[in-house]
DNA sequence: CTAAATTATTGAACCGTGTCAATTATTTTC
DNA sequence: GAAAATAATTGACACGGTTCAATAATTTAG
């Protein structure tokens, strides 16, 4: 087996404390002892055991990233941002997918505790879940990702989803649409609830009527289901706003298959502005979020909190969404 | 601070050994003791400290996943598979993006060594790099992901890329195309080299002429660059085969913008069959790979190698690609 | 009902490092 | 050159689990 600190101490004729000092506080060791010990370390090919080190110090250089689904291109971008920023600070990232399930989320949090992560970046599966207080109690920093917190004792990096909902409706209203379908997702997801709030607020002001279609999951298969529901409505809306681009892709497919022309008959607007929007059957107009930047900022904030410990001022950073107009939205005929 | 094993033992009125047994060998503990201890664990919110555990056992329950780019939907799917399979076995996954750079890859391998991972799943950035031998020497299992190894002392899970290239050309040839453009990527990537080999082999047999366009990166921006190059060719090919779907999306956009009709004037075939292929401007025909399955299989194989230690038979598993025909390929007029 | 076999539980030793009060060696001061 | 100040070194203990030989409790056999 490979040499340990005691072996080095014995061979160099010093105590274990001195060897430990050579590794961690070389300045307190006399030059000639230092040299002798370092030579012995070299000879024995000694590499300190990370487990023992971390067990003693209590800290690791890892963070956990819990998102609802990395397969969603928005989160993929966020994840890249997190990973790049963490890597720059020499932190490794544990990737966890909660699949919007509270049970899975809790299971992963427990795994992350076991792994003794220094901090956790989390997009809560559910607005009610305050399970992450448990992490705090264990000295693990927590920052909310893509979710705002009213609680100022916590960092969060989010995008203004209320504003995003407003921008969407304002855009459609400006194009002359007065009857909009809002393809929403589970209202337990904070982002969705906020976008809905924005939609309703702007709709009231602009005097636009909104029909809500609720999707159970935010993927393109559920988008196709939503498309069917829209086609069955008594009165076809002239514009559709989807809670994310994946849903919008599904709706687009459903409508095109049914012979509905986009944007001639119906305008379609997505959310997230994922890279493929541009390559869609009808290039998709969307509400853009700075996903990569979100990840970078969140990771930097979290690591700063982990390391600055006491004198860290919690911040709630909020980015602004932006309209990206492509071919899928047009003025009402 | 949070509860440890001794606290649980005291509160439940048993010894530390028994609590440890409850965690690791529940079958040797009597049912009523088991229940009592589990209840106490629950009450105290006890989560075992991974470091301490690993220090004694010498092994961690983490693996590293090194891919060239998670933002590529193919790898995103693979990553999901890896994560789901690892999670089932109670392993946590470190995510690393090498961006096809050997330097970054080596940096990450070093980080993974520091983190004392039990095994590494890697898609080598470069066919030459045998840096992962260093890991082996440290007792870290390594399995190749999406790459075949000739070396039978190593596990690998791959897709038959040579066959993939063949299938593509056979398909296009069957549709009557005799003049094909092959939008390739860096030939240092083994997958690309294999696909090229398959293309050339099938082209020779089917008597098809191939013009190779080399993309520097496998993304859609480079696809647009490739489209420009194709438009500048003296003789326009009647079909284009791209090394992945992202490139194909770029090519599609480039051609459509130039007024070229797909598939009427040019057939376009991608590789990977990513989810968005179906939502593309022209639904994209593609060569499908079982990405999720690839990830699951690789993770299971790696963990089995980690745990079975001695009596583990190295396996080289190879999946077969499949043609998925959509609207972007058609018989030559 | 006792002896033997089986099952359950115990707790001290150990994994490999970091820490720090105590000890020893060296240098400075007058 | 002795006392005081400073620098260097020591080693037991802590971290929080796992392991395993020893012991205790229970079941089975005769």
Feature tags:
homodimer, 333 residues, alpha/beta, 434 Repressor (Amino-terminal Domain), Rossmann fold, 3 domains, 12 helices, 12 strands, 44% helix, elongated, DNA-binding
Protein architecture, described:
Two copies of one chain form a homodimer. The model of chain A has no long low-confidence stretch (mean pLDDT 92). With 333 residues, the first copy, chain A, is of the alpha/beta class. In chain A, the strands form two sheets. Chain A has a six-stranded parallel sheet with strand order 2-1-3-4-5-11, with helices on both faces. Chain A has helices at 5-12, 16-24, 31-44, 50-57, 73-88, 102-114, 133-137, 161-174, 190-206, 220-231, 245-257, 291-308; strands at 62-67, 92-97, 119-122, 141-145, 155-159, 179-184, 209-214, 239-242, 267-272, 285-288, 316-319, 322-324. The longest helix of chain A is centred in the last third of the chain and has 18 residues, at 291-308. Chains A and B meet through helix 4, helix 5, strand 2, helix 6 and helix 11 of A and helix 4, helix 5, strand 2, helix 6 and helix 11 of B. The structure holds a DNA duplex (30 and 30 nucleotides).
């Amino acid at each position: 087996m490979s040499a340990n600190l005691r072996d080095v101490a014995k061979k160099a004729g010093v105590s274990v404390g001195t060897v430990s000092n050579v590794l961690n506080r070389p300045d307190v060791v006399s030059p000639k002892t230092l040299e002798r010990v370092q030579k012995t370390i070299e000879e024995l090919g000694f590499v300190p055991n990370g487990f023992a080190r971390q067990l003693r110090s209590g800290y690791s250089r890892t963070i956990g990233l819990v998102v609802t689904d990395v397969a969603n291109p928005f989160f993929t971008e966020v994840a890249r941002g997190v990973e790049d920023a963490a890597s720059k600070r020499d932190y490794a990232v544990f990737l966890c997918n909660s699949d919007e399930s509270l049970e899975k989320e809790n299971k992963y949090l427990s795994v992350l505790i076991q792994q003794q992560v220094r901090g956790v970046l989390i997009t809560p599966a559910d607005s009610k879940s305050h399970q992450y207080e448990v992490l705090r109690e264990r000295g693990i920093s927590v920052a909310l990702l893509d979710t705002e917190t009213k609680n100022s004792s916590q960092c969060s990096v989010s995008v203004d989803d209320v504003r995003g909902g407003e921008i969407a409706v304002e855009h459609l209203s400006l194009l002359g649409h007065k009857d909009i379908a809002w393809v929403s997702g589970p209202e337990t997801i904070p982002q969705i609830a906020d976008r809905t709030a924005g939609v309703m607020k702007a709709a009231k002001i602009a005097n636009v009527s909104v029909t809500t279609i609720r999707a159970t999951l935010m993927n393109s298969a559920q988008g196709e289901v939503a498309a069917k529901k829209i086609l069955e409505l008594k009165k076809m809306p002239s514009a559709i706003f989807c809670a994310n681009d994946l849903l919008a892709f599904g709706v687009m497919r459903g409508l095109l298959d049914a012979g509905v022309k986009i944007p001639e008959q119906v305008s379609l607007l997505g959310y997230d502005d994922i890279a493929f929007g541009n390559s869609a059957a009808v290039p998709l107009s969307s509400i853009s979020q700075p996903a990569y930047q979100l990840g970078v900022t969140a990771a930097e904030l979290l690591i700063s909190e982990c390391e600055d410990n006491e004198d860290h001022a919690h911040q709630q950073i909020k980015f602004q969404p932006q309209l990206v107009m492509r071919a899928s939205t047009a003025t009402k005929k």
